[in-house]
Design a protein that fits this description.
- The structure is a single chain.
- By secondary structure, the protein is of the alpha/beta class.
- 48% of the residues lie in helices and 13% in strands.
- The chain has three domains: 6-138, Rossmann fold; 152-313, Rossmann fold (3-Layer(aba) Sandwich); 318-452, Helicase, Ruva Protein, domain 3 (Orthogonal Bundle), CATH 1.10.8.
- It contains 19 helices and 16 strands.
- The protein has a five-stranded parallel sheet, with helices on both faces. Strands 7-10-13-6-14 form a five-stranded parallel sheet.
- A hairpin with an 8-residue loop joins strand 11 and strand 12.
- Helix 2 (37-45) packs parallel to helix 3 (64-74).
- The chain is globular and about 75 Å long.
- The structure holds adenosine-5'-triphosphate and magnesium ion.
- Adenosine-5'-triphosphate binds next to helix 7 and helix 15.
Length: 456
């Protein structure tokens, strides 16, 4: 990082505040000071570049932990370092749990303090970088196209074309990685709403109790922690399409609230009394069997019927293997266009190996395999040796095959591991806790395997 690090120091003791500011400035940082949590918030709200905040915990007025909580809402990416005196170490631990970056004990050791500031600023920089690259990647992926000529995928494409121009609610079903999100985008792209926003919400990521705030928005001050006005998803998607991903994970209480809007077409922003008119096309997405969830009492039957007006079932890749060559060609072209690959051809034996494999992770897994191949392959022809290596490394034997030539025990054990994990996830519909139980290991261990096999 070449620009100076911008730090905000918050402490109600003049001596501490001034000496930290001096220390930081002597080290080449740009430091601002605030003598209370309120003043700090005001400065942050005023905008301007800021990389790290350092705050005392016990101050008159707003406490350091309240300040942290507020900052988390306004600038979740801003790392905060907490200053602790004797007796407040436990509070510091609580702050760490609440999202503080780190803590420093008073009296402050200058060296240690400056190292921490640099680490925090670097962290902030990297988080920003990842975000920027992600959005670039998203843009590069360009307009969505559904590749495939199998009867199964043609049926899906036909259904999409039929339902897109209507305003009807669509329920997109299918296993993980089959292309459900792509289908939802395509419905939007081919609809009259195409020029308006497409907004996707992951229902599984909404904290309990925050459903209304997320979907309807809130006014500043309408509840503790609501420091700013927030636009809800219905308003964001106004005139366009609202894709409700992982709808099966929505809690019953939230389901009731969603149903009410879908039926009345009206909602109100939290903290506002007037009702607003909702104008969104809803596409719900799930990889769970919702009828089972209805039967088990986890999903409201009335909401299910409301969403299930037009179901579109996206087939698994194993049921449309004839599309594999086209998909491979499509992914190779995508990677070539990004300048990351020079593969132009694929050996017939490699194609055959891809066709024998049964793709528990569906198209996403195929895409990953091809991406790995573009990295590993040294020539401009994708060889069966490379494909075999990838399939053997990460995955077990295709069903019904004999042991073959690869007797490397470590590779084979790893392959089996990966396969068991995918199978457990499949049987538990992606529920990690249950999958861990299935495999007889604890959750942390399971998380380790997910990471190891790049499945998270
Ligand atoms: N028919 C297709 N043609 C081209 N690319 C596809 C197709 N189907 C899926 N993909 C690609 O495969 C990847 C996974 O697709 P997507 O995210 O839509 O799956 P999903 O069903 O939503 O998975 P999950 O249930 O895990 O969220 C994406 O990179 C997507 O672009
Ligand atoms: Mg998805």
């Amino acid at each position: 990082m070449s620009n100076p690090i911008q730090v905000l120091v918050v402490d109600d003791e003049d001596y501490v505040r001034n000496s930290l500011v001096d220390l930081l400035e002597a080290d080449g940082c740009v430091a601002q000071a605030a003598s209370s949590g309120e003043e700090a918030l005001e400065r942050v709200r005023a905008g301007g570049e800021l990389h790290v905040v350092v705050t005392d915990l016990s101050m008159g007025g707003m406490s350091g932990s309240t300040l942290l909580a507020q900052l988390q809402m306004i600038l979740p990416e801003l790392p905060a370092i907490v200053l602790t005196g004797v007796g407040t170490v436990r509070d510091a631990v609580a702050c760490m749990k609440a999202g503080a970056y780190d803590y420093v004990a008073k009296p402050v050791d200058p060296e240690e303090f400056l190292v921490l500031i640099r680490k925090a600023a670097e962290h902030r920089h990297l988080v920003g970088e990842v975000k920027r690259l992600r959005s670039q990647v998203d843009q590069l992926q360009g307009p969505s196209v559904i590749v495939g000529e199998s009867a199964a995928i043609r049926e899906v494409v036909r259904l999409i074309a039929d339902v897109a121009p209507t305003d009807a609610t669509v329920l997109v079903l299918g296993e993980s990685g089959t292309g459900k999100e792509l289908v939802a985008q395509e419905i939007h792209r081919l609809s009259d709403r195409a020029r308006k926003p497409f907004v996707r919400v992951n229902c599984g990521a909404i904290a309990e109790g925050l459903f209304e705030s997320e979907f309807f928005g809130h006014r500043r001050g309408s509840f503790t922690g609501a420091t700013e006005d927030r636009t809800g998803r219905f308003a964001e998607a106004h005139g366009g399409t609202l894709a409700l991903d992982e709808i099966g994970t929505l809690k019953l209480e939230a389901q009731a609230k969603l149903l009410r809007v879908l039926e009345s077409g009206e909602y109100s922003v939290v903290g506002e009394s007037k009702t607003r008119h909702s104008d969104v096309r809803v596409v719900a997405i799930t990889n769970e069997d919702l009828t089972t969830r209805v039967r088990d009492g986890h999903f409201r039957e009335d909401l299910f019927y409301r969403l299930n007006v037009l179901p579109i079932e996206v087939p698994q890749l194993a049921d449309r293997k004839s599309d594999i060559p086209l998909l491979v060609e499509h992914f190779l072209k995508t990677f070539r266009d990004k300048g990351r690959c020079r593969l132009v051809e694929i050996e017939p034996a490699a194609q055959a190996a891809l066709g024998r494999y049964d793709w528990p992770g569906n198209i996403r897994e195929l895409r990953n395999v091809i991406e790995r191949a573009t990295i590993l392959e040294r020539s401009d022809v994708l060889s069966s040796a490379t494909i075999d290596r990838i399939l053997n490394q990460g995955m077990a034997l295709p069903r019904g095959e004999t042991l073959g030539d690869n007797l490397n025990i470590r590779q084979r054990v790893e392959a089996l591991e990966r396969r068991l994990i995918l199978e457990a996830l499949k049987r538990t519909h992606g529920k990690k806790k249950e999958a861990a139980q299935y495999l007889g290991i604890d959750y942390r261990n399971f998380a380790y395997y997910l990471k190891k096999h790049e499945l998270s």
